[in-house]
Amino acid sequence: MEIIEVPGLSFEDRSPTERVIIENLIQSKVELQDMALVKAPMTQILNHGGFENAQLFINEVCQQFSHKNLLFVSQHIQTERLNFKGQQVLTPHAELGSNVSISIPFFPVTISKKNPLVERDLLFSFCGSSTTHSLRSRLMKNFPDYFFDRGVHGGLHDSIRTPTFVNRYIELLQKSIFSICPRGAGVSTVRIFESISMGAIPVILSDRYSPPLCNPYSWDDFAIFIREDNGGEIKNILESQTSQRIKEMQANLNEVNQGFFQPSKIHLSALQGLLKPVDLEIPSSRFPLNSDLNG
Description:
Low-confidence stretches: 277-295
Radius of gyration: 19 Å
Oligomer: single chain
Shape: globular
CATH architecture of the largest domain: 3-Layer(aba) Sandwich
Structural class: alpha/beta
Largest sheet: 5 strands, parallel
Strand content: 15-25%
Number of domains: 2
């Protein structure tokens, strides 16, 4: 796999997913025929240059290397709005139905903070922002005893996080059997992978989210998907899970976490997507798409 270096740009600490995925792909030395990896910090370009400059950058790279099959990596929430000119992009915000995006995990900062000795005595919890999507504000109102609004949350790697927030967030993930992961400004949320790294079963509410491949596992083996408009049923759905089913999901969660979502392995989902045709169908046990999503 050829590497296309972009001079003058470096990866920021606030976008570790891009850096780690690119580093892992380069080190893996897997043969990706006729593919060139663009080693560029897309999140930094978007944050500092804005959407238009990011699009111009993509246009220039695609034009300069028009004879190559390019591979971009971007963890920014606006990735799906960008036009990659038919080239492929690895992103945690991959949407169902995309013909260029391949889903990858977020890099979970919580991996070094897990405490296996803490008893999980909370059925479920959420700690974060209620302002990034209307779904979150509705859930806050429906479940005030389980949802804790702590303002904007972009991940524990963000420098604006206070020790109080971090400690509370970690504590809740350690003590919760299920972690509620509603979509925010993007279709995905880093909370999914922070929860997995902490051993809390993710409950995902995002109708358009396309999770990363982790064959031979299906996401239904270790996560629960609930339609956004069925968010009011969270408590009933989780209370209906048997203790045996929870134990099975927790065991699967640990195996998948060790096999796919550790820092040295989070590129494996990308390789599964690149080496095989991307399956964009929702597993049969997940909800069917609404008619408005099909149109």
